[in-house]
């Protein structure tokens, strides 16, 4: 094997200042030969990384061979190194991708914490300003649509209605049914202690129709459709489609934001009603099994237990939830930078912000309309 001129080998320095000569083909194909790589590593250790090196006798040097030498040199070039221009290019590429990671950022004390807090506040205010601007632009686009309905993006609207509304029905039905079962079993356990079994209809009716149904549907839609809206618009940013729309004079808000906002505002009340009905079905089944409350009694008592005001309040909340989820998804989608990392961060931020805002708005509705429906 040593007689083969292509075999990678090392000639140690013959004198104190003489360089160590690298010969043969230092390539991945040569290193695949049995026991060759281990033999080379032993010879490299015998020379030491601080010696002078001469690579001009190497027939071929690929990135694997250069990486082997680079690791032996301790991640930096020797002080005395003789290479050809082609070897110089390979080593430069190894040096580029094997540079040391940046040092960990040390804590900057209370001044750094105050600076970071101030930067966070300014960033939040900037995001809020952009969101308000997008909301105002949506209002102007709705006025434009009212004046010229024949110019509206109706085909986009119908497509979003199908994707956001119809395709969400199975998952919302399953989750709503299971939530109804769990809530009914937990409620029945408490009511049985006081002999107030019949009140399970009132508790389930008000809780599911007024609060849990719309809230559960909004959270599911925010996680499912809100992220999809951000991803769709973000991908258009990455592929320069948004810039192309600007060049062609097409409004982002009118063609992208308006159909999605209208579709979610129209679909959310229907999804909320569907989720609530499925949750009531689960609760009715669990009440029959746990307390012996028959479905016929449940259905007769439900209209008396739940006032019409609860239905109106749930519908109003659902419309508001739909608009907010669509606007937040579009806001983060339009803010995506043309790279995949920003796309992932924008999608995650969209989902987290949408769910947080939905819960916050639901709490505000509960406080503001606490006298409605009772």
Automatic annotation (TrEMBL):
It is found in: Cell inner membrane. Pfam families: MlaE. It comes from the Bacteria. The chain crosses the membrane at residues 164-186, 273-299, 311-334, 346-369. It is a multi-pass membrane protein. InterPro entries: ABC_MlaE_roteobac, Permease_MalE. One of its GO terms (cellular component) is ATP-binding cassette (ABC) transporter complex. One of its GO terms (molecular function) is phospholipid transporter activity. Keywords: Cell inner membrane, Cell membrane, Membrane, Transmembrane, Transmembrane helix. NCBIfam families: MlaE family lipid ABC transporter permease subunit (TIGR00056). Belongs to the MlaE permease family. This is MlaE family lipid ABC transporter permease subunit. It comes from Ramlibacter pinisoli.
């Amino acid at each position: 094997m040593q007689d083969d001129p292509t075999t990678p080998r090392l000639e140690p320095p013959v004198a104190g200042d003489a360089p160590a000569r690298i010969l043969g083909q230092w390539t991945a194909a040569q290193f695949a030969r049995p026991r060759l790589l281990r033999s080379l590593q032993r010879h490299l250790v015998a020379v030491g990384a601080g010696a002078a090196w001469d690579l001009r006798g190497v027939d071929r040097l690929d990135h694997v061979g250069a990486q082997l030498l680079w690791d032996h040199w301790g991640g930096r070039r020797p002080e005395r190194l003789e290479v050809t221009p082609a070897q110089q290019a390979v080593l430069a590429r190894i040096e580029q991708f094997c540079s040391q990671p940046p040092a960990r950022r040390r804590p900057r004390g209370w001044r750094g914490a105050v600076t970071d807090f101030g930067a966070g506040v300014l960033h939040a205010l900037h995001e809020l300003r952009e969101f308000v601007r997008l909301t105002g632009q949506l209002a102007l686009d709705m006025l434009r649509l009212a004046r010229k309905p024949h110019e509206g993006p109706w085909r986009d609207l119908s497509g979003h209605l199908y994707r956001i509304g119809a395709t969400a029905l199975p998952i919302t039905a399953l989750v709503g049914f299971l939530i109804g079962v769990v809530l009914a079993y937990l409620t029945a356990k408490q009511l049985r202690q006081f002999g107030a079994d019949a009140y399970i209809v009132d508790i389930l009716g008000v809780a599911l129709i007024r609060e849990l149904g719309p809230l559960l549907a909004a959270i599911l839609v925010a996680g499912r459709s809100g992220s999809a809206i951000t991803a769709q618009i973000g991908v258009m940013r990455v592929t320069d489609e948004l810039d192309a729309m600007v060049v062609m004079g097409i409004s982002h808000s009118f063609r992208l934001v308006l159909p999605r906002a209208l579709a979610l505002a129209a679909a959310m009340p229907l999804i909320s009603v569907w989720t609530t009905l499925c949750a009531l079905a689960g609760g009715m089944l669990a009440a029959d099994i746990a307390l012996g409350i028959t479905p016929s009694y449940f259905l007769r008592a439900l209209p008396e237990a739940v006032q019409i005001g609860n239905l109106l309040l749930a519908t109003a909340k659902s419309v508001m939830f739909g608009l907010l989820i669509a606007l937040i998804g579009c806001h983060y989608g339009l803010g995506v930078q043309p790279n995949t990392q920003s796309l992932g961060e924008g999608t995650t931020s969209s989902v987290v912000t949408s769910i947080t805002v939905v819960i916050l708005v639901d709490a505000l509705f509960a406080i503001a309309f606490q006298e409605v429906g009772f």
